[in-house]
């Protein structure tokens, strides 16, 4: 029923929610596509099977525009607009792949990986891992600097855990808590590099207003928020391979 | 003073601007009052705004029938300390007497005489919260005229003036107003961006502390022109004096019927309030400002929708900088053409330039666009305070490019500076002498971005921290070539992939420092460093 209501396939993540405006036609990588006005370029691209990498976007949440891997080129526009936050316009000519876009996406992914446990790169199957594969970036060129790799894991909730070392602060959990569940238990505390996801006023998940609905776990693209049942014998961060 | 005002022969003006106060203006005013009383002299002390000649603050001015040789003009003495006050009376300064601190006619001081003060016409002259003083010096004429015009005609007058946003982005103010005016909504807002956070800038503060009515008049004109009925002044928390002055001025306007439900019987309703920020540079970005005003975390909103269409609480909102709005009353009073006749190219009107850093005469220079950086720094600023040669200048705040000597003949003009990856910004110019370490300045630019990043988008959130780390390594001489290469790649990603101008422009000071001062990084001079135009 969900897919009928949304008029979208439910096995595809279109990146942004559907809209119901008048039809608008554009081309994405040369392929003509027609979507309702108000739709994002990302939804249009996905509708014609052009995949744009994305991390902070998912079609059950409003666009946010923070992860910067969905940058595209649009003819006649300066710069590299984010596909998720750019509404379609009639006659728009969108390019989702180019050497320049590849370069920028790689640069952004390298920043993510500069604060992500290298030991968690191989063997993972999260959306972040999919984007690593799509962009061909699995390592960071940055020398070791400030990071969140030793941040303590919150295992207080009986059903899921939160490992901040794998968090990319995309706010999908925060937005799912607000937009899907209406609980407003999660927020971002601090700013800049110190920004981190916290439950209520920086409490453990179990002590916070969290109602254990699981919307945040479903929304998390990195398995930073993840079900405990996946880990037999308890959760352990993967150990760095011995040199 | 104890004597009735009819017997007062001399008026002594002492600024109440916070720069002057920080230099002792309150103590000087108190010392003058005490000394006058001791001598039984009838002296009236008026606390005014500042002229913006900061190296002369506290600048005390005298005027009156007994003042000799002034021809009605004000004579200045400065910089005055409380200890100078008895000597000043001894020399008869209240009658224009000669003294080592005497500056002659204030308006003849070359720094001031050669300016074109439109927005700052009353700076240093009037009592900030006296509406009669304001009206006597040209105030309220713009709003009076605007209320007699159709709102659309007011918008077109501002379009014709060529006024562009003085906060930094330089977007045409009139075009923004047109968009808000055309938007259909039950309510609209005027939001003043008074989160003046750029290093070395203070023109917004001077307007708010020194001439609050001109801002409030500009807001009411914006409200009339666009159909907005309520205004918010989003004020940075570091400006407590401005808050007091603005609130006092608002009370005066309400009492006199210039703000409220039926302004001067026109049927137009407009009111406003001051809201204080919480110390985040990013809240000077208009969408983060709106989030903060709504009581949320100050994070960037993506655009579109533009705030002009969907702004505060989702309603059409004019978001203008303090100086932009303070420039509107004179546009309405004298006409758009009068304003547009100043300036060059697409930069019309005047800009209140703020000289700061290592400069002999720091202060406010309001000039038509087109004045060169060299003229500003050498003729107005008098060169460096240290007396050493100028090595670098940063124009337009912490995200502005560093220029070396070779670019000082550039005119102050949005397009001319943009050609060299620089910006007019909010009009701040910070001067450095030849002892500056530009690698350290570049590191600081990244650190600034790291401290002030809202944390929303990745290039800024992680990139600024990585940038600071890379420059630190370069300074320490570690893998200089590799770290330099990575820094250039990082700057490229930040510039082109960030969500807003903070992350997008933080590379500018870094890349310009690398381009013009490679030796400071231990790098060989290169004619064409990557990514720099």
Provide structural commentary.
- With 243 residues, chain A is an alpha+beta fold.
- Chain A folds into three domains: 1-97, Ubiquitin-like (UB roll) (Roll), CATH 3.10.20; 101-135, no CATH class; 160-230, 2-Layer Sandwich (Alpha-Beta Plaits), CATH 3.30.70.
- Helix content of chain A is 21%, strand content 13%.
- Chain A has helices at 2-6, 41-47, 99-113, 127-135, 172-180, 215-219, and strands spanning 23-28, 31-36, 73-74, 93-95, 160-162, 186-189, 196-199, 225-227.
- In chain A, strand 1 and strand 2 form a beta hairpin.
- Chain B has 533 residues and is α/β, with parallel strands linked by helices.
- Chain B folds into four domains: 5-113, Glutaredoxin; 131-340, NADH-ubiquinone oxidoreductase 51kDa subunit (Rossmann fold); 344-433, Ubiquitin-like (UB roll) (Roll), CATH 3.10.20.600; 438-521, Up-down Bundle (de novo design (two linked rop proteins)), CATH 1.20.1440.230.
- Chain B contains 23 helices and 16 strands.
- Chain B has helices at 18-22, 25-39, 85-90, 110-113, 131-136, 141-147, 151-161, 173-182, 203-210, 212-226, 240-255, 286-293, 322-326, 328-334, 336-340, 373-380, 414-418, 438-452, 458-461, 463-475, 480-497, 501-505, 507-516, and strands at residues 10-15, 43-48, 60-64, 75-77, 102-105, 189-194, 230-235, 271-276, 317-321, 343-344, 347-348, 350-357, 363-368, 390-395, 402-403, 428-433.
- A five-stranded mixed sheet of chain B has the order 2-1-3-4-5, with helices on one face.
- In chain B, strand 14 and strand 15 form a beta hairpin.
- Chain B is globular.
- The termini of chain B are far apart.
- Mean pLDDT of chain B is 95; it is low at 1-6 and 529-533.
- Classes of the chains: A alpha+beta (243), B alpha/beta (533).
- Chains A and B meet through helix 3 of A and helix 18, helix 19, helix 20 and helix 21 of B.
């Amino acid at each position: 029923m969900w897919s009928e209501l949304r008029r979208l396939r439910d096995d595809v993540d279109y990146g942004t929610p559907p809209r119901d405006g008048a039809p608008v036609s554009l081309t994405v990588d040369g392929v003509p596509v027609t979507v309702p006005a108000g739709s994002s370029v990302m939804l249009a691209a996905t509708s014609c099977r052009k995949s744009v990498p994305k991390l902070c976007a998912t079609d059950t949440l409003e666009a946010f525009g923070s992860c910067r891997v969905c940058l595209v080129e649009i003819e006649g526009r300066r710069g590299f607009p984010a596909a998720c936050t750019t509404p379609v316009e009639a006659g728009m000519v969108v390019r989702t792949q180019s050497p320049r876009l590849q370069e920028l996406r790689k640069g952004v992914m390298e920043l993510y990986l500069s604060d992500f446990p290298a030991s968690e790169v191989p063997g993972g199957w999260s959306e972040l891992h999919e984007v690593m594969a799509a962009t061909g970036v699995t390592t960071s060129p940055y020398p070791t600097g400030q990071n969140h790799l030793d941040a303590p894991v919150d295992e207080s909730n009986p059903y899921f855990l939160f490992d901040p070392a794998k968090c990319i602060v995309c706010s999908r959990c925060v937005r799912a808590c607000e937009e899907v569940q209406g609980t407003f238990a999660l927020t971002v505390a601090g700013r800049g590099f110190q920004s981190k996801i916290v439950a209520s006023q920086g409490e453990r998940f179990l002590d916070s207003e969290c109602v254990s609905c699981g919307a945040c776990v479903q929304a998390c693209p990195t398995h930073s928020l993840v079900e405990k049942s996946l880990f037999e014998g308890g959760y352990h961060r993967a150990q760095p391979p011995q040199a | 003073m104890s004597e009735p005002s009819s017997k007062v022969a001399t008026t002594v003006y002492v600024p109440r601007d916070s720069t002057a106060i920080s230099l002792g203006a309150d103590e000087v005013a108190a010392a003058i009052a005490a000394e006058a009383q001791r001598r039984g002299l009838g002296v009236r002390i008026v606390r005014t705004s500042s002229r913006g000649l900061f190296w002369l603050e506290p600048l005390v001015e005298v005027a009156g029938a007994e003042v000799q040789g002034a021809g009605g003009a004000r004579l200045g003495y400065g910089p005055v300390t409380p200890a100078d006050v008895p000597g000043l009376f001894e020399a008869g300064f209240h009658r224009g007497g000669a003294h080592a601190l005497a500056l002659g006619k204030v308006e003849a001081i070359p720094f001031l005489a050669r300016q074109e003060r439109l927005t700052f016409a009353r700076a240093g002259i009037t009592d900030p919260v006296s509406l009669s003083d304001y009206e006597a010096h040209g105030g309220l004429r713009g709003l009076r005229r605007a209320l007699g015009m159709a709102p659309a005609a007011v918008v077109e007058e501002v379009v014709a003036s060529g006024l562009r946003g003085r906060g930094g982005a330089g977007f045409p103010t009139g075009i923004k107003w047109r968009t808000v005016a055309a938007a259909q909504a039950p309510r609209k807002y005027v939001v003043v961006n008074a989160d003046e956070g750029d290093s070395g800038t203070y023109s917004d503060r001077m307007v708010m502390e020194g001439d609050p009515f001109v801002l409030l008049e500009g807001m009411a004109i914006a409200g009339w022109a666009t159909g907005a009925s309520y205004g918010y002044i989003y004020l940075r928390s570091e400006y407590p004096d401005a808050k007091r002055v603005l609130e006092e001025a608002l009370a005066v306007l309400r009492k006199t019927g210039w703000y409220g439900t039926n302004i001067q019987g026109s049927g137009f309703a407009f009111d406003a309030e001051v809201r204080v920020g919480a110390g985040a540079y990013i809240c000077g970005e208009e969408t983060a400002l709106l989030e903060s005003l709504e009581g949320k975390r100050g994070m960037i909103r993506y655009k579109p929708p533009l705030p002009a269409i969907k702004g505060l609480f989702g309603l059409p909102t004019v978001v203008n900088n303090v100086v932009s709005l303070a420039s509107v009353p004179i546009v309405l009073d004298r006409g758009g053409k009068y304003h547009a006749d100043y300036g060059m190219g697409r930069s019309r009107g005047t800009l209140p330039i703020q000289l700061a850093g290592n400069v002999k005469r720091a202060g406010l220079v309001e000039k038509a666009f087109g004045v060169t950086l060299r003229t500003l720094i050498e003729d107005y600023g008098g060169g460096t305070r240290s007396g050493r040669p100028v090595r670098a200048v940063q124009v337009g705040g912490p995200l502005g490019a560093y220029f070396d000597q070779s670019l000082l003949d550039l005119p102050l003009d949005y397009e001319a500076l943009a050609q060299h990856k620089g910006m007019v910004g909010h009009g701040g110019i910070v001067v450095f002498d030849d002892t500056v370490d530009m690698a350290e300045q570049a590191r600081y630019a990244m650190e600034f971005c790291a401290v002030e990043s809202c944390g929303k988008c990745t290039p800024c959130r992680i990139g600024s921290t990585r940038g600071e780390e890379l420059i630190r390594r370069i300074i320490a001489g570690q893998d200089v070539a590799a770290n330099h290469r990575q820094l250039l790649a990082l700057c490229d990603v930040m510039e082109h992939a960030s969500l807003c101008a903070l992350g997008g422009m933080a590379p500018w000071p870094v890349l310009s420092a690398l381009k013009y001062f490679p030796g400071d990084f231990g790098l060989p001079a290169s004619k064409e460093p990557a990514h720099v135009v």
